[in-house]
Amino acid sequence: MSQVITNAFETYWQGCLTDQSPVVLDEVVLADIPDLDITVPINPDTGLPAPGYIVHRHPVDQRGRVNNNAVAYTIVMDTTVGDFSFNAMYLINKATGIVGMIVFKGREEKVKTDASTNTTGNSMVKSMLMEYDRAADATMTNVAAGTWQIDYSARLNGMEEEQRQHALQLFGHHSFIDDGFQLIEQSGIYKVMPGKAIVGGLYLHLEKAQTVYPGAKPVGVWVDAFRAGTLLSAWENRFSLVTSVSDLNDYQDQSGYLHSVAKIATIGADGRITDHRRKETHSHQWADMREVPDDIGKLKEQLNENTGAEQVRTSTGKTVEDMLLKGGLPFGNDGVKYALSAAAFRRDKAVAGDWFVISDTAHIPVNSRGIEGGVNPKIKYVGKRIGALILSPDETLAMDGVSVGGSVGSDFAVMSMGAPCSFSVDLATGEFDFDTHYFDKLRFKLVISAQGVVTLTHPGMRLMREAIVRYVAPSSTDKNLQIHYQQTPNPGLTSLFLLGDVEGTISYNGTEWVVGSSDQWDTRDLKFTWDEENGALLVEHQLLVGSPTLTVTMLDLGANVYTAASQAGSNSFKVKFRKHDGSIPSLSTALGFYFYRGESGIRKQPKGKLLVHLGQVQVNCDHFSHPQGNVWSLGLMEN
Q1: Quick one: which of 32, 74, 77, 501 could link to 81 by a disulfide (CB 3.0–4.6 Å)?
Q2: Are the beta carbons of 91 and 100 closer than 8 angstroms?
Q3: Is 58 helix (H, G, I), strand (E, B) or coil?
Q4: pLDDT tens-digit series, residues 67-90
Q5: In this structure, which CATH number among 3.30.9, 1.10.1270, 2.60.520, 3.40.50 belongs to the domain 156-275?
Q6: Angle between helix 307-316 and helix 320-327 axes, rounded to 10 deg
Q7: CATH number of this structure's domain 421-498+607-614
């Protein structure tokens, strides 16, 4: 290992002494430099490396006083940071770019946690110790240096997630309190009123009214909430108000933060506002339904006493209690203001995707059918208004891990259901192999394009919050895939883009460029353009996806090689060559390089199998668990 305090810092330090201003070094730059000799003394005139070698920038998390002449600068990289390797560290002033200290060291790997691959990330604490005359005074550092080497992030994240899940159980996906976040219009100006809400289990407080500029109408107004912070700072719930013509879904941003979105209102083409806020609905609303039994004992008693029950008992010879709790027979009571009706929904295995409803004579559902491909059964009552909805899953579906939720309209209720679904697709034949019966094999459609894009469609897939996808190559090695959702997807459409590690060598043999191909990419149609004036080689391919993560390594052919992120295009990348003395080589010089792309690259038609696990959907609603399994109860209000 070698290290140095740079000449640039000496000049900067002297200027700070003259101006009586503190020395500020507030960022550490990590780089991965090929063929770095860490035993050679570092030139104090060295600056930052070429942009292509920089792999990560991290703000200084802690600064501590070792003694009056030494200050330690520490960064803490938790399990959300990665993946990259580095062998050089630069302590800099972020605002000016001045490099204060450089350390060349052995290469280390930084890996982040990836639940989709069961990869456990590593945490790193890195410190750089600067020693110079009166360093502590110059940097105004009074706190003694401590040790910051324990990664509490996993435990803290787990505690916060547990708290968020509790809030989701109490308030559903989103709930607005009183007039909080209500959209109003005043003299043509749209404002979201202050107040409180719980979105995605996160408590939000809008302290003052905020103006919304809708632009083209009709348009929806949404609140986008997430929780963020740094490893050593206080975390907080953050949110923004956004407008969108299309519906929004929960998502994860590039920093790894989970965002929950809730629709506040729609501004129509005529400027009118439709309020979509889901109000806080808890015990005070359920208490209004005074005729609804508050426990299963009273429920059984009322079931067997009402007129509908007598009709059932006469016609079937069985009590309603027996039919309801064992077969899902619904019931009703028209003699009170609120009538309690129940219906059992069962999936007809003979007719894939269809659901059938057993109904009582008093509340006959009409136009009762499966929507969204049979995933969301919808029940509609003529001449009745739905007052409430109590949901619990059918026991046969519960064994499949079905989550049940629902929504209530003026005269209808929608039973929203989803289930985990795992299957594999043979990319050569398109054959499906299912390990669950919930989704129907024939409902899936598979299309593989010449570019290796796999598109799977299913009417019910839109309900799924996330999917875990793996590509199993013929060698049976798992390779992770990334899912790209379209900007405005059709209902149920998910586009899966096959990705894989891509690597290879390209060299000039004196006559032409020679390509060394691996099993993972296709070198056909590669085009090489040599720029003699600038010593640059342009590599183009119709299936080459541009990416700043391209890594180029020099081969021992008499030239140094470097590339910058800006030199990666949509279907090409450029490599610049320089001799050891800095001059531009010619094609008579032996030139060559090795390249690696960890995220995208030239690819062959995919072979092997595609394994897909669709995560369990959770559609939240204000409901409480019914202890008897296969019952959906609807409180009906008489007109």
Answers
A1: 77
A2: yes
A3: strand
A4: 777 888 989 888 889 899 999 999
A5: 2.60.520
A6: 80
A7: 2.60.40
